[in-house]
Each structure stands twice: as structure tokens, then as C-alpha cells.
Amino acid sequence: MIRLHNYYRSGTSHRVRIALNLKKVSYEYVPLNLLEKAHKSEAYLALNPQGLAPALEVDGHVLTQSPAILEWIEESWPEPPLLPTDRFDRARVRAMAALIACDIHPINNLRILNALKQDFGADHDAVLGWITRWTTDGFSALETLLNTNHNRGEFCFGKAPGLVECNLIPQVYAARRFDVDLAPYPAITAIDAACAALPAFESAHPANQPDAV
Fold first, then answer.
1. Cα(93)–Cα(76) distance, rounded to whole angstroms?
2. I need a labelling partner for 79 at 20 to 30 A (CA). Which of 41, 131, 180, 208 fits?
3. pLDDT tens, position by position, for the chain (213 residues)?
4. How many structural domains are present in the chain?
5. CA–CA distance, 103 with 121 (Å, rounded to integer)
6. Residue 209: inside a domain
7. In which domain, by residue range, is 195 found?
8. Claim to verify: residue 108 and residue 178 sit in the same structural domain
9. Are residues 134 and 93 in the same domain?
10. Is the pTM of this model over 0.85?
11. Is residue 212, in this structure, part of any structural domain at all?
12. 45 and 91: one domain?
């Protein structure tokens, strides 16, 4: 049995749900309410000492950090693949995924936004400005990479979604939540629309989770 401890609106949780769905892997959904600080409970910290979402329990193991979880999922269920076969192409796909997972998401997640407000006195407009700045910086670079990628099809790389989409779609959702203007990114929004039509992405969407409010 696979148990995914996650929060419906967490981008890192969202990307793992997408990957599991693409691989058609069943799992038990364990809600972890970040707003109520469930991730700081003694029980959860025993699973994940960092106190972040998600955590994946499987066969007596606990996996943390969504990039590592995504790689484990890919290694455990190679089909359909999240990565291309060529090693240079794999590096390019991983770079696009890391652009989101390392350079956009971490500085826009809940604990950073809370620190901006609590430690530095940032008001609502300042927080939105922070989110917009780092999202647009990253999306502008990704849009350029997509438009110069000769392997781009309906999706970021080729004819099927993969590792980049697992990371990108949750970040597009977050951008919309915070009113980031997506008009300058037609390639990104086209890929988002293509993914939205697929059951794996629809069932992973935050609005369709049991703890959605």
C-alpha cells in the first residue's frame, strides 16, 4: 500500500499526484492540513523531520522531497516514461523541471510567504509582488526554452506529458491563484490546456481532492 501524505493545494503534493496518476498507480490519500500546522505535529515529524509536504510511505519506507519521489516513481514504473531516452534530452527535461522546482516554487511557497509577512512586515501587495517577480522570471525563461526546443510537441517535450508537466502544471495553478498575468506565455498556457484535458491531470487537480475547501 502506498500512502501519500499531502495537502490539496501544495504544489509539491500536486506534482506527485500527477506522476502517480500518469503511471496509473493507486495510492491512499492522507490529508495534511498545512494551514492547521498538521505538518508540525509530532506524528508527522516522525515521518518527515523537515515537516514539509509531501511524504510517501511505501513498503516500510518513507520518501520525502518531491524531486526524489518523482525519480523513484519513474524508476519503479518505467512506463509510460516521464523522461526521454537520450541522455542529453533527459538533461534538458530535468533542467526545465528544475527551473520550476528549484527556482520558482521554493521561494514562493507558504513558509517563505509567511516569513515575508511575519519577519519583514510585507503587506498583501508586497507579497503578491514577490510572487509575481519570481514566477515571471522563471516563466519567461521557460517560455524561451519551449519556443526554441525542436522536440516540443503538444507538450513540453514530445507528444506526451512527462517530468516537466508534473512540475509545471501545479505552478501554473499557483500563478492563477495569485493573479499572475499569463498572457505573455502562450506556450506554457497551451501546454496547461493540453494537460487539463487528460484524466491524470484532472484527477490530480487541487479542486478534486478530498480535503479541498
1. 19
2. 208
3. 899 999 999 999 999 999 999 999 999 999 999 999 999 999 999 999 999 999 999 999 999 999 999 999 999 999 999 999 999 999 999 999 999 999 999 999 999 999 999 999 999 999 999 999 999 999 999 999 999 998 899 999 989 999 999 999 999 999 999 999 999 999 999 999 999 999 999 999 999 999 998
4. 2
5. 23
6. no
7. 87-201
8. yes
9. yes
10. yes
11. no
12. no
